[in-house]
Amino acid sequence: MNQAFNYEAPTPIVSLPTQVIVAPSAIRARDPSLPFETQFQLLAMQYRHVTLQDALASGNAFYDPLKQSWAIYTKRPVASFKGLVFEAMLARLCREHPDVVGRRALAWCTNRTVGRVTDKMVNEYIPFITADSRLQNRPLTATFYNPGSPFDLQFYRVNEAGAAELARQVDTGALAGIQAKAIQGDERSEVIDPVLSGRYPHVLTMLKHKTGEHSYEVCRRLLTAMSQKGEITHEQALDALNRITYPGALGIDQGYIEDYSEYINISYKQQVQLRSDYIEAIALEVSENLTTSPGGILVPARQDLILPPTL
């Protein structure tokens, strides 16, 4: 005979309030169910500090001595400003994560497999952005400053003779580097045509379209269509696709890119200024060893493109 039992959960003897502390990155900041102000606060917690660093490297961080405030200010359109910041971000991520992002970026742009980039190479090669005017501060790197370069990111090392030499592609000996694109359209003119013509040896396209399709996938689709129509050969399409990539292939989380992009959008619209209420919070990370140039641009008192410690 089956017997039914009524079960009731035991009443807890003691009930304690629980508070769980999580990192802002653990919360989906762009969740549409969150109020806009909450989304912005979460994004700011994650990206305010690095935005200043990247804007500084791209020449878009300024100090107003009268207001005693730091500001990210630009007269460029938001897409152009975002592109500059993303260039600096790429170099920063190569430095912060040399064993993953740095290694993969160096391998890809020099036409090596990741396994052929040794630890010694990762330690020796220093990533930099070609539009960083601070390169001119050192005779060693002064000639690397080139805002019109087809590369946004390059790598250099100091050879045994004490001279700086740029990384090169292993098969051709041509200079190696990466062009970074923060676009959500015009892939044919912005990426594909320059790659096919040889102007851009390697292009990292960063963003997804508003539809959710990644710019890289758009490039793939366009190249396939061009091959099928006979505009280019199948081999040309494959070669071009090998020279175009997306953040995940370099070990960069796509969600990080999209959230950073949104924070830049909001900051750009609101002309976000880094005022005294959180200057202290970023001082240790950003302002140490910075001085103010005559033009009001924050520059490092000590160049951050350093020589290897053995020299």
Question: How would you sum up this structure, described in words?
Answer:
With 311 residues, the protein is α+β, with helices and mostly antiparallel strands. The protein is 38% helix and 12% strand. It is built from 9 helices and 11 strands. Strand 4 and strand 5 form a beta hairpin. Helix 6 (215-228) runs antiparallel to helix 7.
Descriptive terms for the model:
311 residues, alpha+beta, 3-stranded antiparallel sheet, 9 helices, 11 strands, disordered N terminus, disordered C terminus
Assign the structural class, choosing from mainly alpha, mainly beta, alpha/beta, alpha+beta, or little secondary structure.
Answer: alpha+beta
Average pLDDT score: 76
Distance between the termini: 87 Å
Overall spatial form: globular
Q: Bin the strand percentage.
A: 5-15%
Instruction: Note the total helix count.
Output: 9
The percentage helix is 25-40%
Task: Give, in spatial order, the strands making up the sheet with the most strands.
Answer: 1-2-9
Provide a compact summary of the structure.
This protein is of the alpha+beta class. Helix content is 38%, strand content 12%.
Itemize the secondary structure elements and their pairings.
Layout: H1 36-57, E1 61-64, E2 69-72, H2 78-96, H3 98-109, H4 119-124, E3 126-129, E4 153-158, E5 164-166, E6 179-181, H5 187-197, E7 203-205, H6 215-228, H7 234-242, E8 244-245, H8 254-270, E9 273-274, H9 279-287, E10 290-292, E11 298-300
Parallel strand pairs: 6-7, 7-8
Antiparallel strand pairs: 1-2, 2-9, 3-4, 4-5, 10-11
Helix pairs in contact: 1-2, 1-8, 2-3, 5-6, 6-7
